[in-house]
Amino acid sequence: MDMIWYESLNKPAFTPPGQVFTPAWIYLYVLIFLALFTFIYTKTDKDKKLGYFLFGIQMVLNLCWAPAFFYLQNIIMSFVIIILMLIFVFMTMAEFYKVSKVSAALLVPYFLWVCFATYLNYGMMYLNTL
Q1: C or N: which end of the chain has fewer Cβ atoms within 10 Å?
Q2: pLDDT, tens digit, 9 for 90 and up, residues 79-105
Q3: Exposed e or buried b for every residue in 19-57, given b needs 16+ CB within 10 A?
Q4: DSSP 8-state class, residue 19
Q5: Residue 107 in contact with residue 96, Cβ under 8 Å?
């Protein structure tokens, strides 16, 4: 990753120091996969296919954001990705809730972090490209 480029960006208020991101994402990934495992192992008569599909889409978007932002240095593309990710995380939570309230609740910190990350991405887009 080109951290020199990142450090050179104008950043919005409330941007946390860089060392916050790694532990935050480790914590969030643990919760994300606990939510998935809870969803998988919850016994139900309800169809889980849509939940799996939505989870997969939001994870693909999650995995696409960093390359778009850091490697391609495309703040606008990364903003589009994070908006889609925010929508799909919310839809995943709603679908998980139908099967397991616990699995949906485990995704709440992730959703809130993606909301905050969307603010940061927008702020950097506004301050550096618009």
Answers
A1: C
A2: 999 999 999 999 999 999 999 999 999
A3: eeeeeeeeebeebbeebbebbeeeeeeeebeebeebbeb
A4: G
A5: yes
For residue 92, give both structure tokens: 């995943």
Query: Mean pLDDT, to the nearest integer, of 22-29?
Result: 96
H/E stretch holding 72: none
Cα→Cα distances 100→9, 33, 43, 87, Å: 41, 14, 9, 20
Tokens of 51: 């939940």
Q: In terms of pTM, does the model score above 0.90? A: yes
- Of 95, 124, 119, give the one whose Cα is nearest residue 107: 95
Helices marked H in the chain: 3-8, 21-41, 49-66, 75-99, 101-106, 108-128
Cβ count near 105 (within 10 Å): 15
Q: Within a 13 Å sphere around the CA of 89, how many CA atoms are in the beta-carbon half?
A: 25
